[in-house]
Amino acid sequence: MLDLFEGEAPWQEVLAEDAVILRRYAREDDQWLFRHIMQVASLRPFQHRITPGGFRMSVAMTHCGSRGGYPENPPVPPVSLPAELQQFAVRAAGSAGFSGFLPDSCLMNRYAPGSKLTLHQDKDEKDLRQPIVSVSLGLPAVFQFGGFDRADALQRVLLEHGDVVVWGGRSRLRFHGIAPVKPGSHPLTGAYRYNMTFRCAG
Ligand SMILES: O=C(O)CCC(=O)C(=O)O
Ligand SMILES: [Fe+2]
């Protein structure tokens, strides 16, 4: 996919109070970040979770580090959070104004065309004072960023390869989601969008 901002330095866009997009922040690190996703997925393959309502989620997930409250079936041996991934997330959080981030978990999502993530709050983590650092790789997707009520108005922003969203503090419990991903092809990730969310799951 052609990036019109390819030669530009990364820049920041404020989404809300304590929520910022670090545009193209991960662009230079995309290769090794993606290698980590592939490595984790080779040990703990991507799975489509079944929701409590009995639906198979369109997004496929895996993770490394602490499992926190994320359910898993069948159980798979743990994979630790690589130090360089953790350091990357700490640095990104710092750039967004969150010092002292201590992520112990990285959830990895894989979106095939048509996959989406319904509006939700990230509230399984024990320490909600710590932010979420979310890295987008591959195909673009529309990120929906709402309020504290599911029905609140949504901002819709296109997240592209290398974009990092950080939200915490007063925005930590905002509803958010991903609209269905459009078909396409990306030189690094092929027909998929990948996302990594770093968290302090506890
Ligand atoms: O894929 C994304 O950009 C968001 C992922 C997300 O919200 C989550 O995994 O909880
Ligand atoms: Fe989320």
Automatic annotation (TrEMBL):
PROSITE patterns in alphabetical order: FE2OG_OXY (PS51471)
Broad enzyme group: oxidoreductase
Key words of the record: Dioxygenase, Iron, Metal-binding, Oxidoreductase
EC number in record: 1.14.11.33
Signal peptide stretch: none
Coiled coil: none
Domain of life according to the entry: Bacteria
Residue ranges occupied by any Fe2OG dioxygenase domain in the UniProt entry: 102-202
Recorded GO MF terms: broad specificity oxidative DNA demethylase activity
Names of required cofactors: Fe(2+)
Pfam families to which the protein is assigned, alphabetical: 2OG-FeII_Oxy_2
Name the UniProt record assigns to this protein: DNA oxidative demethylase AlkB
Organism of provenance: Tatumella terrea
Gene transcribed to yield this protein: alkB
